[in-house]
Write a structure and sequence with these properties.
mainly alpha; metal-binding; metal ion binding; two-stranded antiparallel sheet; YfbR/HDDC2; 188 residues; single chain; HD_domain; EC 3.1.3.89; Hypothetical protein af1432
């Protein structure tokens, strides 16, 4: 492998540091896609002792690549209705563009992990999908959000994804309780 191709890929990843999500940090700054993916990977790692029959290496890699398809057009809020098939197609095209400098075997590895995540059929993909939503809600609860922020949306956001595992369900219940506290504070 020519290392300059690897560096092209690494440099292109900066887009994920610059593209923001519709979540705010506790200081009122919009969170980047890269920050979300990093904290999702840390969330997965921290849960390793509590989940059974999981290939943590695949989970961590999946959590790091799950939003690479947002490198060019950015994140689209879940509150915005978008055709899921079109969104998936755009993300796949962007992902292929982003990983193009990598060797073919590594491109295939990334695409396989991304497809596994998007299909959500394996325990690893289910874990990452559930924690992706939970991490987002944690950030919403932790963030310095605009006054009109809709906390009630989060109570249903991805909730069924946590139901496959009792540990994830318990975590989701705690996070939902925190969301209700924020909703009640905003009403007063």
């Amino acid at each position: 492998m020519e290392y300059h191709h690897l560096l092209l890929f690494i440099k292109e990843l900066e887009r994920l540091k610059n593209n923001t999500r519709t979540a705010w940090t506790s200081t009122g700054r919009q969170e980047s896609i890269a920050e979300h993916s990093w904290r999702l990977a840390m969330f997965c790692m921290a849960l390793e002792p509590h989940v059974q029959d999981i290939d943590m290496s695949r989970v961590l890699r999946m959590s790091l690549i799950h939003d690479l398809g947002e490198a060019y057009e950015g994140d689209v809020s879940a509150t915005i209705a978008e055709d899921p098939a079109l969104k998936l197609h755009k993300e796949e095209d962007a992902l292929r563009r982003l990983i193009a400098p990598l060797p073919e075997s590594l491109q295939q590895t990334v695409m396989d992990l991304w497809r596994e995540y998007t299909e959500g059929n394996t325990r690893e993909a289910k874990l990452v999908k559930a924690l992706d939503k939970i991490e987002t809600i944690v950030q919403h609860n932790q963030g310095d959000n605009p006054p009109d922020f809709d906390y009630s949306f989060n109570l249903g956001y991805g909730k069924p994804l946590a139901a496959f595992d009792p540990v994830l369900q318990a975590i989701r219940d705690i996070v939902d309780g925190e969301t209700v506290v924020h909703m009640n504070r905003n009403r007063t």
